Amino acid sequence: MDDIQIAQEISKGNQKVFEDFFNLHKLKVMNLCYGMVHDKEVAEDLVQDIFVQIYTSAHKFQGKSKLSTWLYRIAVNKTINYLRKERFKRFFVSTDDNQHKLLADERADWSMEEKEKINLVRKVVDKLPSKQKQALILFVYDELPQKEIAEIMNCSLAAVEVLVHRAKKTIKSKTDNIYGNITS
After folding, report:
1. Phi, psi of 98 (to 5 degrees)
2. Which residues 6+ apart lie within 8 Å of 5 measured at CB?
3. Which residue has the higher pLDDT, 176 or 126?
4. Angle between helices 130-140 and 67-92 (to 10 degrees)
5. pLDDT digits (tens, 9 = 90+) for 81-125
6. Fewer CB within a 10 Å sphere, N or C end of the chain?
């Protein structure tokens, strides 16, 4: 079944096709969301919202890109919108710094020092310009080819290469003293 047929079946309410699509892509979408929000529960909620939107909007898929690319574009946009809303809320309401619930916190075998290093890297990634952060997360966490990232981000392949390079360079410059050369 090609992408247009899958989208048509989903829009008709075919649960089996939707379940297969969900199971095929849920982990990568979860990695993308978690990589941007650093909170497992929020990422899970976003994944649910994203797939609900896919289910209700499948009839809008036109086949101009791969269905997975369309899914990622929706996921990136929904996650960015969430982050914008959170930033707006934090502007008006003081919150504690539990924003960075790390997967590393659940790893008992990691030393406190290692967890702190990971936390520092995540904070550096959080402070990257939005486009650099998106490109880096799609490239590193989701291991997508740069060509597909270009389609998702609606930019050229060269732009993605530059964004990933700049993101790595920034991370390296801000973490060199703790990790040495981590971006090679």
Report:
1. -90, 15
2. none
3. 126
4. 130
5. 898 777 655 544 433 444 444 444 444 556 777 777 777 888 888
6. C
